[in-house]
Design a protein that fits this description.
Blueprint lengths: L3 H6 L5 H14 L4 H15 L5 H11 L6 H44 L3 H29 L3 H15 L4 H18 L2 H18 L1 H9 L8 H14 L6 H13 L5 H13 L7 H33 L3 H6 L1 H29 L3 H16 L4 H18 L1
């Protein structure tokens, strides 16, 4: 690992080396954000000595304080540090492009061949495995997000209100403020009052409209402006893990507007898990299903553009943000709310995926493998697909 002095001597690099590294990582980085970040650490700290471990951890802390996909934002940060503003754009684009291209190709094949029995049985085996992978992510997220009885109570409240149909963005914001104020108050009585005030704000602000939208689903015509705006909103407010994306997709695209079915959502999740790179390229798949190539490009642009803006704005402020107790407390609340949203959507998706004893057994086996052996998610998805095809041949 490079020393601080050595890193200072090599603090400026070329756009070409940034492009080569992140094209490589975008092509081989399976396993989700944690795996992506570990690979980046190995490449830029250990192998290349672009920055110190301490600086790398500072950037990682900063990405947790802004919305968007953590591993993509780490790539953007690292590109900016290595090659300035051009490096910022190139690093992010090169990390995203391979996954976008692969996902777009699979979306084309899905639209053309998705009704074939072979594809049905392939996805029949993949979907239970996806549930196991998401459960593993939930567990790891819970260990970090639930930091005591107070944050645990906030998370449970978010789960209940999510099942009742409350708005996801409102839940994230109110939970963040509640934990921030409750933590800084420091007294049990004050925390109870903060919880009561937060619950009242949620009930008074977001309930009627959202509940009505959920209860009366109507098919709304797909528009490119609406599609782009939706993914811009998601990219601008989404905290936590890429899996939280599922909650936003189901609430608006499935329940509110009827642009997707639960079946298509599960298929999009399966493809997003199978491909390398950011989980957020699920947006590419969804955009293609709804509006072809223009939809895929605009959905991808919409969901990732805010990350470039947030990194550019926050990079000079990283040292102060990293040390802020208030910002850290707000993030604790947002993270536990993200966990609650993930729990709710995983339950709903599990009901759609676990349809018989084969899928239940496959989900249990995949859960055991992913927790005990920590097998790469791509291998699990591949194995689930093969079991699904084998099930077709045996029936």
């Amino acid at each position: 690992m490079a020393s601080e002095a050595e890193v200072q001597e090599r603090s400026h690099g070329t756009v070409g080396e940034v492009a080569r590294l992140f094209l490589k990582l975008g092509t081989i980085a399976f396993g989700g954000p944690a795996a992506h970040i570990a690979m980046m650490d190995d490449e830029v700290v250990h192998k290349r000595g672009w920055l110190t471990r301490e600086r790398f951890l500072d950037l990682l802390g900063a990405t947790n304080l802004i919305p968007g996909p953590n591993s993509t934002e780490m790539a953007i940060h690292l590109g900016f540090l290595r090659a300035g503003w051009r490096g910022l754009i190139v690093a992010g684009a090169c990390f995203i492009f391979p996954a976008m291209a692969i996902t777009g190709t699979l979306a084309w094949a899905y639209v053309r061949y998705g009704s074939l029995p072979e594809v049905f049985w392939l996805l029949y085996g993949v979907k239970p495995v996806i549930i196991a992978i998401v459960v593993q992510a939930l567990w790891g997220f819970a260990v970090k997000a639930v930091k005591g009885p107070f944050t645990g109570a906030v998370g449970c409240a978010v789960v209940i209100l999510s099942f009742l149909g409350w708005d996801e963005v409102l839940l994230l914001l109110v939970a963040g403020v509640a934990v921030m104020l409750g933590t800084r108050a420091g007294r049990k009585g004050a925390r109870v009052k903060v919880m009561a005030a937060a619950s009242g704000a949620i009930l008074g602000t977001g309930a009627p409209a959202t509940a009505a939208a959920v209860s009366a689903v109507a098919k709304v015509p797909v528009s490119l402006w609406g599609l782009t705006g939706f993914f811009l909103k998601v990219g601008s407010v989404l905290y936590g893990s890429g899996y939280v994306l599922l909650a936003f997709l189901r609430s608006d695209l499935v329940q509110r507007w009827g642009w997707l079915t639960d079946q298509q959502l599960m298929d999009a999740i399966a493809v997003g898990q199978f491909t390398p790179g950011p989980v957020f390229t699920t947006a590419t798949f969804v955009g293609y299903i709804m509006a072809g190539v223009p939809g895929a490009l605009l959905a991808t642009l919409g969901i990732f553009l805010p990350s470039f803006v947030f990194v550019a704005a926050s990079s000079p402020l990283v040292p102060r943000i990293r040390r802020s107790a208030w910002a850290g407390s707000f993030l604790d609340g947002v993270n536990v709310a993200s966990l609650g949203l993930m729990v709710a959507v995983t339950w709903q998706l599990g009901r759609a995926a676990l349809v018989d004893w084969v899928t239940v057994s496959l989900a249990l086996a995949a859960t055991a493998l992913v927790f005990r052996l920590r097998i790469n998610s791509a291998w699990l998805v591949l194995g689930g697909g093969l079991i699904g095809l084998a099930t077709q041949l045996l029936r």
